[in-house]
DNA sequence: CAGGGGTTGTGCATTATTTCACAGCCAGCG
DNA sequence: CGCTGGCTGTGAAATAATGCACAACCCCTG
């Protein structure tokens, strides 16, 4: 069913996971891969994976599997990660610095092109190859850069302000690392990454785990 | 239904989100809160939230809402975040450094008590108040520390090795920041946080968004 | 003490997602 | 060319999660 109606979010997440894996094995010169091999490598259930692909049209070859190179390109096309995309970052603290370093790696197509902060002591400092700019000039700067993707790496108290500034500057999707819920107008996408929250869920798991090595 | 059978994962994630919010408003001396107020603040559907709580027993009072202090304590009890818990971190790069700083904040009960790396240039360095140790001594060190929660902040190629070492040292749940899928034995919990993957999903959203300000 | 406005807890209907299971296809081999 | 072993694509069944709707409840006011 090549009609791309409404794609489940878990499907997109799995495709992203799979893309990561394909990038990995591509460098090992593997030419072809089956859905069950993907299952053992990534934990994604084979039938699930095939169905995920089926939302977007035909891919693999029965009896053979998927051509690694082709599959990777196709998923890249779906997720729109084939071409380099500019990203702007707000918050030049430790996390912000780590993110700039991380996305400085060449193996993915997201590139942080500007860093902003509101702390006068940080403005003007150099983070890797970027100079931290005043968040007050974000809109102005992005009018030239034209980034649509923004990352919030500031503290929770500042997150909503930052969000408003980003949206105002034409940012359409936001990756939010601040441990708080941000409000955005319709038509702006958000994903939250909250470290404490992740640990809290793990902490629950931990409490439910049977005690090991009793004896 | 106070029987705590099998809790949906989304429920735990919502409770964690809510806990974060409660911590926030508690400091503002709000005494009571309704599920619909929680909805407007966090985006969690009110009925959904009430049902989440119902998995764990009775809480609020009809006509009034929830006592903020009590609710927070109860959720803390569910997620087991009332008491401070030791966490060990592997990977003393930029991200690792940011994480140590982040969890150094006193407002949550996770505390990084040791940092490990395999890079000789990093071993012995000081990260905030901790000295980076050789990952080869992880098991030995944790025999004394007794941490059950581990964080992987190393590169993808090292992730599986790190995982094995952690599990061997008695770590039962792992927060994995390395952009790869790690394999763990039964009874060990994992949550993955992958920046590229988050951006990839946002990139898909972005491509589906209608173009704004046409005119 | 009766009535009203507001809020909870929850069974049930609805929607979303996963898993199964199998027909159909592919390459290789004799 | 016909058979075999392996793998895909997908409808249908099963499972999971969400959202609705309403009885029961609480405080306040008069």
Report on this structure.
Two copies of one chain form a homodimer. Chain A is α/β, with parallel strands linked by helices and 215 residues long. Chain A folds into two domains: 9-79, Winged helix-like DNA-binding domain superfamily/Winged helix DNA-binding domain (Arc Repressor Mutant, subunit A, Orthogonal Bundle), CATH 1.10.10; 85-198, Rossmann fold, CATH 3.40.50.720. The first copy, chain A, is built from eight helices and nine strands. Chain A has helices at 9-26, 35-42, 46-54, 68-79, 94-103, 138-145, 156-168, 195-208, and strands spanning 32-33, 66-67, 85-90, 110-117, 126-127, 130-134, 149-152, 173-176, 189-192. The first copy, chain A, has a seven-stranded mixed beta sheet with strand order 5-6-4-3-7-8-9, with helices on both faces. The N and C termini of chain A lie far apart (56 Å). The interface between A and B is large, with 62 and 63 residues. Chain A binds a DNA duplex (30 and 30 nucleotides) through residues 1, 8, 10-11, 34-36, 45-48, 50-51, 53-54, 58-66.
